[in-house]
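Q: Sequence in, structure out?
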Amino acid sequence: MQSNTFKVVSVNISEKKGTIKKPVEFIELDELGVKNDAHAGHWHRQVSLLGTNSIEKFEKDAKRHIIYGEFAENITTEGLTLFETSPLDRLIIGNVELEITQIGKKCHGTSCVIFKEVGDCIMPKEGIFARVIKKGIIRAGDTVEYHKKMFKVHVITLSDRASRGEYKDRSGPRIIELTYEYFWKNEYPVDIEHTIIPDDPEALRILLEKAEDDRVDVVITTGGTGIGARDFTPEVVKDLLDKEIPGVMEAIRIKYGSEKPNALLSRGVAGVISDTLVYTLPGSVKAVEEYLEEIFKTMNHLIYMLHGIDAH
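A: Exactly. Output:
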């Protein structure tokens, strides 16, 4: 387990893209990135970072000394394997806060000035990129705090009987189990909250509004997607959505409905409330397993899209 703190060994600037950056006494960061640096702007790769472990490995293979900034990194660090971090992780350096947005990048090969001068480039493989969350000044010698993104998920079971203790909720715990498995496979820490409520529209609305306020990443409901008198989950969710994502649920209904026509009767919806993804699943364990198998295929990409990260 690596330490949560490491340090800055050099800060570097270049005025033109595709050129080597030069070490400077300090760099000042604002909402666009590093002031006076060519890569500053309204985009997700405002600040570039590279670790000395990557540089030293290249020096050994190339049999030559590398000056900090030669691979066009704004910040050279020591003590953490940067390319093992993930988008949405945070770096705090004094008053500055950075959010990691990309690991590696496309290499332009011989058309790149850096590639021509150095003979190769490790930024595409082992460099990382970030955007500025809080502005300030960074100097060599500053301590960096690394904070892994903790995803928050809220699972909501809607059932009159389960809420009264007359029926054991099985679909909610199965969602939790599969969700833990998904985030574990992707090496993302996750905190999952589970709430059982009766089939009450107002109770569901309150939980969804609280999830939005608490910046929960994903809400998954189970129950209330049919056509019974007490089935209202899609209506409550649709009323709160900023954007619906119809293709997800349509694809699931088509996939399983071709073999089991009753699967076409579910009215589940998917969409976004602010920065929170919301999925409404049927109330059976089998349906939960089928739905999540498809939902997890696009969840990572949707989370990145919500945060303005181009992960194509």
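Residues 36 and 195 are 50 Å apart (CA to CA).
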